[in-house]
Amino acid sequence: MSAAPLLDRLEGVRATGPRGWVARCPGHRDKTPSLSVRELPDGRVLVHDFAGCDVHDILAAVGLSLRDLFPERLRDDFKREQEPFPARDLLKALGHETLVVLMAASTVAQGVALDSDNLDRLTLAVRRIREALDLAGVRHAA
Ligand SMILES: [Zn+2]
Hints:
alpha+beta, four-stranded antiparallel beta sheet, 5 helices
């Protein structure tokens, strides 16, 4: 049962169904069980705190991560889909690459042809922007 590692770390666990539980949320001072844990048929575990704690905080409080909510066989998929670069890093990279594009554009706007180094750098910028979009799971036109 893939919910077991999480349930073992929670307090006040009570079954609400064959694959459902409530427990006290480790993310806040939870007097009444406000954490809902559900195990899906494919083995993934859903966690929801009705008091509003973020799932990352809840898991961190018991020493687990989102990855632990996925059964072994789905973890490779999880890695691909759910562990891209942190959004902040992606945005920083995008911000930098758009400056490269802007500089190339303003060079051309001044009537100066890009030399091959600058053209290579512009091509790299476009590639990096596209890679960032891919990593973020954003589909773009060819
Ligand atoms: Zn909570």
